[in-house]
Amino acid sequence: MALTDEGARAADGILAHPRSARSMRSHDAAIAATRELLAEGGLPAVTVDAIADRSGVSKATLYKHWPSKTAVAAEAFGTQMAEAVPLPDTGTARGDFTEQIVRVSAFYASPAGAVFAQLLAACVGDPEAAPYFRRFFLARRREAIRTLWARALRRGEVDPTVDVETAIDVLFGPLVFRRLSGHQPLTEAGAAAVAHAALDGLLGGASVPSPGRPAGEGGRLGE
């Protein structure tokens, strides 16, 4: 059930929140209540009535902040979980990406991963909620991986002709597919196998570092 859209939308589809101190308190209370509901029962536990009852925020106020209950859940989950998987620093691109894939796989296999799958599926049928999922969860997670990619570029360990967004999809897309389809378990060994297969292609074109010659931000070592 869609909430009434009473505010302006940004270009990415996010409903502008009222900015008064009272409105921000209501916003924060609704987010906190939604996080509790997600932890207790996943996305099915998040209803407009439940958020209002738990937070003390009226439905009318909720209508001013979000276009749907799924949008509230996406923001609440995203702002809590976007940085739940810390970035590794093993000293090599292969080590960093392999460790990150293993960590992300473990996240998807956890109860939080189940909520992720519920939200992702719900956002497919709720185009008004999808921008909240992209901004508050996916954008932050992908920005973290861009940090690893930039580090690897400086070391000359990855092929600079590969677009970073493509690399992210190649590395982490299989985990999302496994989370949603269940055709393969989300295990450490399985994650390591995905990393090995993907990195053989992504790292295969990079030159071997030369002593005393650091790589440029966008090129291979030695060029």
Mean pLDDT across the residues is 85
Order of helices and strands: HHHHHHHHH
pLDDT < 50 stretches: 1-7, 207-223
CATH class of the largest domain: Mainly Alpha
Radius of gyration: 20 Å
Classified in CATH, the superfamily of the largest domain is Tetracycline Repressor, domain 2
Q: Beta-sheet strand percentage?
A: under 5%
- Shape call: elongated
Assign the CATH architecture of the largest domain: Orthogonal Bundle
Distance between the termini: 57 Å
Largest sheet: none
CATH fold field value of the largest domain: Tetracycline Repressor, domain 2
The number of helical runs is 9
| Total domain modules | 2
The percentage helix is 55-70%
Query: Structural class given helices, strands, pairing?
Result: mainly alpha
Strand segment tally:
0
Q: What's the layout of helices and strands?
A:
Blueprint (H helix, E strand, L loop, with lengths): L20 H21 L6 H8 L3 H7 L3 H13 L11 H17 L1 H14 L5 H26 L8 H18 L6 H15 L21
Helix pairs in contact: 1-2, 1-4, 4-6, 4-7, 5-6, 5-8, 5-9, 8-9
